[in-house]
């Protein structure tokens, strides 16, 4: 990564950082008052073509505005769309003001947390974070990089986008999120395979690193998050509700050096996933342009629980672009205060391999196996897998040969296995655990019916994967399904906690082969046109170019 100017003897400030005008002179005065001498640059340390300050720092000449056509002017008057450089003292004061304002918006004052707990949990965490902050080398945070391999690029997200021309010069994209989660990983993999410079910023190191992505870790695992001196009977996590705990994490990200990491990367676009968590934490960097991707439960569930609503509003009002998984989610984003022109619908998208597997769908090709339903939702209370089991037990009384596959993991697995035994359907129910994408695609293609009845959800990727693979969808009747599944045509829709209604829908779907075949044909065509990750992210890519102020070189799909 390029080094960035830090300031010279005349007090010239570099891009995104450095000394304020006159800063070098003030430092000279301090050295002289203390009887010290200014450091002398080492002999032979000067590189041709680089300016050098009185402190031995290598500086890049700041390009004139007319030499940087790819940078859009910032409406606030900042050069190149970036905030003006400022001193450490001013940054600290601004951070304190931002912190006080945040706490006021959340309705949680400092006195609500005992002072001793605050000192132990926040102060200790901040000190440990500073000790483990990324090492700065040449004005940039040290990063690990692995070159993109041809195999990784080819299998990233489909065949077409990797051969499509970029609409402009490659972008530098900084991403903040859970890089052990499938959605963030998929987006990072796609943009890296497209040839963009992708920087993954996370609090802890992920379990596995993607090729072609540079990682910036704010804290190494194993480092205590707080000083171990005074251990109370309960930790701060146990004392605060989840939404308020996110405010604590916001402070930890800020004090662990998130802003410093983003400034050192100097991305064209800063992008965070999941509004009430990493989207919220990303606002601590105060960097623009800032894009946030909302997934579903972050707004449909969390934003309705105080102070989750305040966190969501804080995040969305500071985002320059908000991508939403479906139209109902976009409506909720606008309700929370996001500007109309900054909200776009861009579903997370699925991999093409599910469409490929659908060519072998039992609903299209036929088959002599038992009638099979499959559930691929997490084994957690939100997804009502217990209702699926109860409904299957009712339907099986009329269809003794029916089988149910449960292809996921979660905290409810033991309870659900016990429930299957209590309902006396354990011989017809198989818990497969979490399947790899290819294995899941084949399981969906071999199933006649797919069932998903969560209490709340956006248009889940699991639904799109099942539809692409040819399984007949029986879904919860939620607003997010509108426009994708018409009841009785492309699938069946039922109330989320209605076991009897779900049992009737399962029986109807399993016994009507003609309905399943027609729905499979329609659903596969719709997903191919609107639900592939490659198409969705190509459109998001063009939005990122617009955010960065880049001139688009070629026409393409938009959102």
Q: What is the general shape? A: globular
Our Rg estimate from Cα atoms comes to 27 Å
Describe the main β-sheet briefly.
7 strands, parallel
Low-confidence sequence ranges? 1-89, 108-159, 223-234
CATH architectural name of the largest domain: 3-Layer(aba) Sandwich
Mean pLDDT: 76
Q: Count the domains.
A: 3
Head-to-tail CA distance between termini: 31 Å
The CATH class label of the largest domain is: Alpha Beta
Task: Let me know the number of strands.
Answer: 17
Topology:
Elements: H1 23-33, E1 51-52, E2 58-59, H2 88-106, H3 115-131, E3 136-137, E4 140-141, H4 150-154, H5 160-163, E5 172-176, H6 182-193, E6 197-202, E7 213-217, H7 236-239, H8 242-255, H9 258-265, E8 269-273, H10 275-282, E9 290-293, H11 297-300, H12 308-316, E10 321-324, H13 327-335, E11 343-345, H14 353-358, H15 362-365, E12 372-375, H16 385-396, E13 403-406, H17 413-422, E14 429-431, H18 437-446, E15 449-452, H19 461-468, E16 472-476, E17 492-494, H20 499-510, H21 513-530, H22 533-547
Parallel strand pairs: 5-6, 5-8, 6-7, 8-9, 9-10, 10-11, 12-13, 12-15, 13-14, 15-16, 16-17
Antiparallel strand pairs: 1-2, 3-4
Helix pairs in contact: 3-8, 8-10, 10-12, 16-20
Give a written overview of the molecule.
This protein has 559 residues and is α/β, with parallel strands linked by helices. It folds into 3 domains: 1-62, no CATH class; 94-349 and 541-547, 3-Layer(aba) Sandwich (Rossmann fold); 353-531, Glycogen Phosphorylase B (Rossmann fold, 3-Layer(aba) Sandwich). It has helices at 23-33, 88-106, 115-131, 150-154, 160-163, 182-193, 236-239, 242-255, 258-265, 275-282, 297-300, 308-316, 327-335, 353-358, 362-365, 385-396, 413-422, 437-446, 461-468, 499-510, 513-530, 533-547; strands at residues 51-52, 58-59, 136-137, 140-141, 172-176, 197-202, 213-217, 269-273, 290-293, 321-324, 343-345, 372-375, 403-406, 429-431, 449-452, 472-476, 492-494. The strands form 4 sheets. It has a 7-stranded parallel β-sheet, with helices on both faces. The protein has a 6-stranded parallel β-sheet with strand order 14-13-12-15-16-17, with helices on both faces. The chain has a two-stranded antiparallel sheet with strand order 1-2. α16 links the parallel β12 (372-375) and β13. The chain is globular, with a radius of gyration of 27 Å.
């Amino acid at each position: 990564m390029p080094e960035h100017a830090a300031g010279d003897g005349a007090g010239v400030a570099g891009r995104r950082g450095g000394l304020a005008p006159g800063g070098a002179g003030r430092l000279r005065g301090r050295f002289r008052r203390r009887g010290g001498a200014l450091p002398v640059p080492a002999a032979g340390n000067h590189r041709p073509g680089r300016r050098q300050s009185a402190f031995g720092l290598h500086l890049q000449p700041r390009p004139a505005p007319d030499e940087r056509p790819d940078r859009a002017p910032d409406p606030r008057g900042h050069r190149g769309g970036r905030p003006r450089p400022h001193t450490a003292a001013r940054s600290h004061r601004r951070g304190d003001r931002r912190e006080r304002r945040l706490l006021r918006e959340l309705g949680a004052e400092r006195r609500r947390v005992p002072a001793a707990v605050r000192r132990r949990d926040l102060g200790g965490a901040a000190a440990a974070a500073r000790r483990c902050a990324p090492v700065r080398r040449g004005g940039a945070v040290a990063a690990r990089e692995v070159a993109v391999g041809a195999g990784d690029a080819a299998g990233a997200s489909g065949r077409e986008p990797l051969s499509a021309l970029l609409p402009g010069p490659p972008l530098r994209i900084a991403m903040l999120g859970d890089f052990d989660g499938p959605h963030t990983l998929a987006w990072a993999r796609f943009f890296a395979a497209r040839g963009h410079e992708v920087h993954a910023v996370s609090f802890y190191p992920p379990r596995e690193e993607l090729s072609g992505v540079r990682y910036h870790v704010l804290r190494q695992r194993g480092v205590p998050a707080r000083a171990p001196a005074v251990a109370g009977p309960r930790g701060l996590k146990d004392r605060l509700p989840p939404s308020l705990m996110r405010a604590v994490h916001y402070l930890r990200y800020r004090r662990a050096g998130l802003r410093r990491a983003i400034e050192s990367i100097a991305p064209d676009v800063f992008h965070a996933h999941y509004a009430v968590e990493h989207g919220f934490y990303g606002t601590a960097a105060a960097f623009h342009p800032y894009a946030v991707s909302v997934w579903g439960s972050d707004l449909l569930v969390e934003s309705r629980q105080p102070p989750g609503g305040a966190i969501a509003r804080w995040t969305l009002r500071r985002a320059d672009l908000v991508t939403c998984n479906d139209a109902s989610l976009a409506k909720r984003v606008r309700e929370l205060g996001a500007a109309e022109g900054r909200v776009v619908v861009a579903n997370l998208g699925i991999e093409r391999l599910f469409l490929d597997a659908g060519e072998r769908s039992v609903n299209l090709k036929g088959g002599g196996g038992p009638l099979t339903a499959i559930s691929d939702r997490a084994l957690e209370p939100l997804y009502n897998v217990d209702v699926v089991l109860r409904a299957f037990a009712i339907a099986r009384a009329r269809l003794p040969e029916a089988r149910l596959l449960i292809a996921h993991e979660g905290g409810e697995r033991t309870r659900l296995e016990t429930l299957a035994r209590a309902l006396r359907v354990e011989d017809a129910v198989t818990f497969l655990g979490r399947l790899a994408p290819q294995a899941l695609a084949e399981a969906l293609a071999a199933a006649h019916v797919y069932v998903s009845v969560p209490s709340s959800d956006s248009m889940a990727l699991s639904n799109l994967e099942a539809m692409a693979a040819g399984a007949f969808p029986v879904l919860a009747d939620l607003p997010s399904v509108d426009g994708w599944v018409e009841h009785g045509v492309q699938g069946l829709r039922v109330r989320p906690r209605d076991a009897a209604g779900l049992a009737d829908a399962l029986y109807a779907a399993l016994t009507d082969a003609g309905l399943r075949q027609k729905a499979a044909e329609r659903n596969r065509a719709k997903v191919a046109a609107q639900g592939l990750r490659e198409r969705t992210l190509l459109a998001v890519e063009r939005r990122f170019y617009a955010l960065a102020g880049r001139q688009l070189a070629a026409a393409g799909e938009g959102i």
